[in-house]
Write a structure and sequence with these properties.
Elements (H helix, E strand, L loop, with lengths): L16 H12 L8 E12 L2 H13 L18 H18 L2 H5 L18 H21 L2 E9 L2 H7 L7 E5 L7 E7 L8 E5 L19 E8 L2 E9 L23 H23 L2 E7 L4 H6 L4 H4 L23 H5 L6 E3 L2 E4 L10 E6 H4 L8 E3 L18 E6 L1
Parallel strand pairs: 1-2, 7-8, 10-12
Antiparallel strand pairs: 1-13, 2-4, 3-4, 5-6, 6-7, 8-11, 9-11, 12-13
Helix pairs in contact: 2-5
Length: 414
């Protein structure tokens, strides 16, 4: 019996060039990243400072009998009476003297700041401690219950106050604020695990316009603050604003008159001068980070404006096209009458996140806090996206309310 020995040679063949190119291209493609969902919130904390800030405030205000440096206007009055103006001026002079000068006074809340609903003077240190405890509990609920990972704060004294109020979450959140010459400023807190690199904060000083351009010593309103995060495959920016108050609505109420931004009221004049800096800021951010969130206390019912049938030629008093940054006069004023239509002017696309849920115990201001998405970011979101307002934590009988704003939040897809 004989056996045969066989030798085998490996087969070799060449793949067509087109197939090789396709395979090479597939290998070069990045692995698709699953979408990231991030809870985002805005929270006006109503003159939130440290316990030491309040104790100093209380010492000065007790000495001036808790007077009000802002003229009181009775319900239905278009302006304060002469007597109310005189009383406010005297209060301001006395308070400034006891505070140590105008710079020190600017860094102190007015004596009326914490009177709240039903609270009567004199207020004690323990009353303010209860407010701080309520703020900390409210923030804890946002983070622990709603999984919020980026929070824009308004009416806060400093980043140090935010760090205290984060409580047990302080170790995993980064914080930044916008330095300002007044007590109130804006700040961010964000989960530092979000970015592939540390978050980048930048202050927009253009929004800090003067209350009175003719007076070099007049106080300035709050600046803006941007937070930029580098997420996998994209750069996201969050813009925090707290615009000038008391020029809020275009629909009259029993308490507030309807006002356009060209109204002669002083507050509207100030808000009007914030329009051009705000538009320039949005344009600058959009060039670097097309996907952005604009949120905060707008002090303007932009939802009312959006719902109104405003034609393009009505947006500005001169009838000019609202596209682009409006022309400013020597004082910085513009012809703009409606804020929302000026911002969402066709040169950029913006979308308001509607309010679709409000906690039963939510009290305080409504229609002032908003969350707005850039067009590119809005396009990534699911149909029916909505935001909610969460009630602040407050104990029965609390003499200084935790806040007169409820935090507003939304879950966004990135």
């Amino acid at each position: 019996m004989s056996t045969s020995k066989f030798s085998f040679r490996p087969l070799s063949f060449a793949l067509p060039a087109a197939i090789l190119a396709t395979l090479a291209g597939c290998a070069a493609q990045p692995v698709p990243q699953p979408p990231t969902q991030i809870g985002v919130a805005s929270f006006n904390m109503a003159w939130a400072g440290s316990q030491q800030d309040f104790d100093r405030h209380a010492a000065v205000c007790q000495a001036v009998s808790w007077c009000d440096t802002r003229p009181r206007r009775e319900r239905g009055q278009a302006s304060a009476s002469e007597e109310a103006v005189r009383a406010a001026k005297q209060c301001a002079a006395d308070t400034e003297r006891l505070a140590g000068g105008p710079a020190q006074l600017a860094m102190m809340p007015p004596c009326s700041a914490y009177q709240g609903r039903g609270a009567s003077a004199p207020l004690a240190s323990s009353d303010y401690a209860a407010k701080l405890a309520g703020l900390q509990a409210t923030i804890n609920n946002l983070i622990a219950t709603q999984q919020v990972r980026v929070i824009a704060f308004q009416e806060v004294r400093s980043a140090e106050v935010i760090k205290q109020l984060l409580g047990r979450h302080a170790g995993r959140f980064s914080v930044c604020d916008a330095p300002h010459e007044g007590f109130q400023t804006v700040a961010f807190a964000w989960d530092r695990s979000l970015g592939q690199e540390p978050g980048r904060c930048s202050v927009e000083t253009g929004l800090a316009v003067s209350d009175n351009p003719a007076d070099p010593e007049a106080r300035k309103v709050r600046p803006g603050l941007a937070l930029e995060l580098q997420l996998p495959g994209r750069r996201i920016s969050f813009l925090n604003v707290h615009l000038k108050s008391s020029c809020a609505n275009i629909v009259p109420t029993p308490i507030y008159q309807a006002r356009l931004l060209d109204d002669r009221a002083g507050a509207c004049q100030v808000l009007n001068r914030q329009v051009a800096p705000l538009e320039r800021w949005l344009d600058k951010v959009a060039q670097r980070s097309p996907e952005f969130v604009l949120l905060g206390d707008f002090n303007r019912r932009i939802d009312e404006e959006a719902a109104a049938a405003i034609r393009p030629e009505q947006v500005r008093a001169d009838g000019s096209n609202p596209a682009g940054v409006p022309k400013q006069d020597a004082d910085g004023k513009v012809a703009t009458r409606y804020l929302w239509q000026e911002l969402d002017d066709g040169t950029r696309s913006l979308k308001q996140v509607p309010l679709t849920g409000v906690d039963a115990n939510c009290r305080g201001f409504s229609g002032l806090d908003h969350i707005v998405l850039s067009g590119p970011l809005a396009a990534l979101q699911p149909e029916g996206l909505g935001s909610r307002k969460t009630a602040v934590v407050q104990t029965p009988g609390q003499r200084i309310e935790t806040s007169d704003h409820c935090p507003r939040s939304v879950n966004l897809v990135f």
